[in-house]
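Holo model, pyridoxal-5'-phosphate. Inputs:
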Amino acid sequence: MKIYDLRSDTITKPDEGMRKAMYTAEVGDDVYHEDPTVNRLEEMAAEITGKEKAIFVTSGSMGNLIPAIINCGRGNELLIDYRGHMIHYELASVSSIAGALPVSIVTDDGILTPELLKGKVQPDIYYMARTRMIVVENTHNLAGGTFYERQNLAQIASFAEEHSLKVHMDGARLFNAVVASDMKASEIASYVDTVTFCLSKGLGAPVGAVLCGESAFIDEARRVRKMLGGGMRQAGVLAAAGIYALENNIDRIKEDHEKASMIAASLSQTEWAEIDTKAVKTNIVYFKTENPDNIVNLLRENGILCGKAGDDSIRMVTHLNISIEDTKEVCGIIENIRV
Ligand SMILES: Cc1ncc(COP(=O)(O)O)c(C=O)c1O
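Output:
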């Protein structure tokens, strides 16, 4: 039986071209700044996001933790949507390592607005913690792959300026946001101080993320990365996969969004899934169902892997290892499942 793995866009495996790029990569010791392939990846990332500099980090989690350490630090606060990845899936590193307090903001769709942030910035009183940073997650994982429109970003940027706050974008899926919003990565990033994007999700590389920002910030990030144990040596073999991904796998992300819409349409035709197809904006599909354990098992028995997401919902994520043809098969299976 063919298996269609829709648990996450992190499960993709490098293709021949990417493996070849890794195999032939020129390398050096990156802690000495001597790995030409890592240097090239960092230059490319800075150019794509329009930032002065970039740094290759081990993971999206590290790329989010470093700004929390540098911008917030112990005893200070950051504002973040209550379903933020940094709150739920990064082992509370924002508090346990950075020492910062994440203040959860309730949103409908994961998108922060000045109205929601108003009143959450602490006043300048000696017994109150200082609010230092806003985190925007773009696209937003737990909120269903939602993305920031230009106007949202501009409003957050002016709110941050007014209150002297830094803005960090958890852009693990930045390029999904690029495709969905029809904005360039550099335009999106122009509204924030720092952005981390993952190479190992929609872009299909096996490892890593890149944190981009101003030169002085990235120089500091290099120190913090080393402190966290993230100083890598001949990392060019990994960076080469990232370069290949940036050169070959950005435009194809729009296909992932089409596949997600196809799956959502099929789910909407079943009796066991409740879904608002219009809410599916990028490559992440959430649907409600009465007994998610049962449905996950039934789907697995029919070759579809997906993940329970809470007591009444399931998540499916499209990616580069599921083709349009595969998606048609997945849709057929979904439509034929009776509960
Ligand atoms: C929105 C978001 N941010 C950050 C991360 C963390 O990435 P990593 O698994 O590389 O640490 C993920 C991973 O799924 C994510 O979905």
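The first strand starts at residue 4 and ends at 5. The longest helix spans residues 253-268.
Archived with the compound record.
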